[in-house]
Amino acid sequence: MTDIGPIITTSIKNNFRIKVAVITSIIVILICAIGIALTFCLLFIAPETAAKSPDISRLELYLSLIMYITCLLGVGVNLNAFAFQSMTREKSRGIIESLLATPLKVKDIWIAKSLAVFLPGLVLGEVFAFIALIAINYIYFVPSIGFLVTPWMVLSSFVAAPLIYLCLSLLVHLVGLAGKPATGNVIIQILLPVIITLMINLIVRNVLDAASWTFTLANLGIAAIVGIIVIVLQPRLTRERIVLSLRS
To answer: Where are the alpha helices (DSSP H) in 41-55?
Structure first.
């Protein structure tokens, strides 16, 4: 595990060389984050704060949703943009084969490649979510009701949501390394909209409160399910399977 640092750094640098993908992912995340924040602020937060007695629980719900979706998009869009491209490029150029020829364990290569895609998205998602938290508070809440934040709001957005995509990154790279990167790409393309849609529907139907501990627990539950799938499939990640996938 001590040797994965240089692989992570090198992989991140290689991914950043795909300038079109980097710029596109940042623009997509930025547009989506601004769009979501403006929609909630104009339609829900502004009218609620203008009321004589603002409903604090509803304001917490709106802010939590903005932060959660923003962070999930940051990590998810980055994973969508780079996981498939990096695996395909590194397999075709013999980079993976070269790493297999070193004393590095297959597990170390897998974890390093997974983190190299996950970490930049984590930074993007959490930075945008933090900006949303500060900006909305000082524009809408601080002048009238004070700074608004709850521990569960922070845990859901900054810990639970990224944890889902850490497990997904491990799953996608496991599938992509042991088989075809395109298969891993299908998993990413399907799960980002599914997770966001599922959570929004559960909130709209009052099954979950986005500012409560149950929402945090639900996200940790999703991460645990994906993590269990990774643990079950992990024995399939062997040098032999990766070499065969390079030749197929």
So the answer is: 46-50
